[in-house]
Design goal:
CATH class of the largest domain: Alpha Beta
Distance between the termini: 51 Å
Number of helices: 9
Number of strands: 13
Keywords: Glycosyltransferase, Transferase
InterPro entries: Glyco_trans_2-like (IPR001173), Nucleotide-diphossugar_trans (IPR029044)
Strand content: 15-25%
Protein name: Glycosyltransferase
Order of helices and strands: EHEHEHEEHEEEEEEHHEEHHH
Largest sheet: 8 strands, mixed
Strand order of the largest sheet: 3-2-1-4-11-6-12-9
Structural class: alpha/beta
Oligomer: single chain
Family: Belongs to the glycosyltransferase 2 family.
CATH superfamily of the largest domain: Spore Coat Polysaccharide Biosynthesis Protein SpsA, Chain A
CATH architecture of the largest domain: Alpha-Beta Complex
Radius of gyration: 19 Å
Domain Glycosyltransferase 2-like: 7-124
Number of domains: 2
CATH topology of the largest domain: Spore Coat Polysaccharide Biosynthesis Protein SpsA, Chain A
């Protein structure tokens, strides 16, 4: 098989040790990587210093700092647009900084996307029904799904050229789902690999924390924005049932009323079309 040019686009924020370990994983890949683009979402720690040191010994590494933390999707958009304009590439390998792909992950993704004629291939996939979101464990090497996590997904350059990058209006949460809907609407094919070849740390997802609150807000807001844009009755029923599930589930939490408040505000903001970074994760203040 002809060697394809792969450009990694990784997004990081205030996790210098984590992003350095993620770079270690990239350097151990059995399939060659042409470029490693790292977008720093305006970190205040020593991330830039760490990246500068890593770049000094690996010329494939290029990085930029954004003027503000615009979220995962904004970081991916910055990196993909940079990759399209300044780098020769065939595919973009998108990832967060707290996901550590095993050494053969990229090699298997390249083989799968080429052999089975997919346009975007991921390591975690889902099928949506009227009532549930079902995680797919493929029986075959690669299987078609409704959407995938774009973290560690491999996407063809032509897809990014036609439909763009993940939407920065979402800030956090649901950018995967919307991007897959947009890609499928354009006629491209999405699949998931049979086995999960990545270790995800899921940092910041503690049971009772600020993250629980801002994630709940952006989850309900962004799903409502998606519902308005891609409306179907099945999607509407799924959204209502999903929100009821989370709202009733909140009653067992010690911060139940705060959780419910943030989630309901998210529904309202989605209805009126508020987009972007409308809630600061660090202060939980609306802006």
């Amino acid at each position: 098989m002809e060697s394809l040019k792969i450009t990694v686009v990784m997004v990081t924020y205030n996790r210098s040790k984590v992003v350095s370990e993620a770079i270690d994983c990239l350097q151990k890949q059995t399939y060659p990587i042409e470029n490693i683009i790292i977008i720093d979402n305006c970190s205040t720690d020593d991330t830039l210093e760490v990246l500068s040191k890593r770049k000094a010994v690996d010329s494939r590494i290029q990085f930029r700092m954004r003027d503000e933390n615009g979220g995962y999707a904004a970081g991916l958009e910055t990196g993909i647009l940079w990759g399209l304009s300044d780098f020769e590439t065939d595919y973009f390998w998108m990832m967060d900084d707290d996901s550590y792909p095993v050494p053969e992950a990229l090699e298997l993704l390249v083989k799968g996307i080429a052999s089975y004629k997919y346009d975007m291939l991921g390591l975690s996939g889902f099928r949506m029904t009227t009532t549930t979101k079902k995680t797919i464990e493929p029986l075959e090497e690669v299987q078609t799904v409704d959407y995938i996590l774009i973290d560690n997904a491999l996407v063809k350059k032509g897809v990014a050229e036609k439909v763009g990058a993940p939407n920065p209006d979402f800030f956090m949460m649901c950018e995967d789902y919307e991007y897959c809907l947009r890609i499928k609407k354009a006629g491209f094919k999405i699949g998931v690999m049979k086995n999960n070849h990545v270790n995800r740390l899921h940092l910041g997802s503690q049971k009772f924390s600020k993250a629980t609150l801002w994630r709940g807000y952006y989850h309900s807001r962004n799903h409502m924005i998606i519902l308005r844009q891609y409306f179907s009755w099945n999607m509407m029923i799924h959204y209502v049932l999903m929100q009821l599930k989370y709202l009733f589930g909140s009653f067992s939490a010690p911060d139940r009323f705060t959780r419910i408040k943030f989630r309901l505000i998210g529904v309202y903001h989605g209805l009126i079309g508020k987009k972007g970074k409308t809630l600061r994760p660090d202060t939980l203040k609306f802006q």
